[in-house]
Each structure stands twice: as C-alpha cells, then as structure tokens.
Amino acid sequence: MVQEHDEPILKHLKDIKVKFSDAGQPMSFILEFHFELNEYFTNELLTKTYRMRSEPDDSDPFSFDGPEIMGCTGCQIDWKKGKNVTLKTIKKKQKHKGLPENGDLDDDAEAILAVDFEIGHCLRERIIPRSVLYFTGEAIEDADDDYDEEGEETDEEGEEEGDEENDPDYDPKKDQNPAECKQQ
C-alpha cells in the first residue's frame, strides 16, 4: 500500500504501463513505472514482474479458477544517498533474523505478498486499461456512485436502515404513523 513517505516520490511518477509476455513464453506481465528526474533515485524506469500460472495443478485440477499470480520480482532501485525511504535508521543492535530453516514464509510475509499480488492485478486489469477515464474523472464518478455520503456501500434495492419488515423487535401495533401507500 502507499505510505505517507511514498507520496513525495509518487509526485514524480509520469506514467504506468503494463507489458505482457510474448507468445510461447511463460505467462507473466511487467508493470513499468516511468519517473521524471527526482531527488530520490536515479532510475527513470522501475519495473515489477509478476509470474503467473495458467494451467491447473496436477494434484487438484478441479480447483483451477484461471490464471493466478505465483510470484513477483522488483527491479533494483538506485537510491540517492540518504533518500531511501524504505530504510529506517535503527540504533539498537538486532538479533539475527532470517527465513525459517525450512524456507517457508511466515503469515505476515504471505499476507504482504497477497496484498502485493492484488494491487498488481488491480493495476493490470482495472486502472491501466481505464487510465483515460481516471484522468478525466469519469471512472472516479462511477466508483462514487456505489457509496453513500458516509462511505458505506448503498444497497441496489434501496433498503433503508429503518426497514421495519426486517427488524425482529418491530411491533406494528406500537407504530403511531404507519407508512403510507405511495402507489396510485
């Protein structure tokens, strides 16, 4: 996710492109982030490659839901001295930490990867193909139509919070002002 310390860097982002693997190559896509010259790093292009599996697993072929992201690799970022926002200065000496000996990722790392994959997929499938609509504000207006003023999703059927029919404590005998029939 975008952190507050990422925002000044993203002001230098000029374009995002997606490139798909060539026919005959393993299924993958690359997100290209094009930056103008900036005070944070020397790269004008940062890339992230997502490898995908496009065939069912032999051990469980019926669970196949279509292509899925299996891994990703980011490029080397050439940070300018003192500008790497991903590093924290730690004065306390840390104990030796690393991957468990069996090489498995812990739950936190798996959750981070899952979010990373979801963001990459969203950029590839929703944002980049509709970039002109986002630029003109049309895509943002469409997204706003699905939410009410408090940011809660609205119900398509027009169900209101005070829906007496679905309230188990509602007693029609106590209702002083019954709803009027608005059909004519």
Automatic annotation (TrEMBL):
Residues 139-184 are annotated as: Disordered. Pfam families: NAP (PF00956). Residues 170-184 have a biased composition (Basic and acidic residues). Residues 139-169 have a biased composition (Acidic residues). InterPro entries: NAP-like_sf (IPR037231), NAP_family (IPR002164). It comes from the Eukaryota. GO terms for biological process: nucleosome assembly. GO terms for cellular component: nucleus. PANTHER family: TESTIS-SPECIFIC Y-ENCODED PROTEIN (PTHR11875). Belongs to the nucleosome assembly protein (NAP) family. This is Nucleosome assembly protein 1-like 1. It comes from Cricetulus griseus (Chinese hamster).
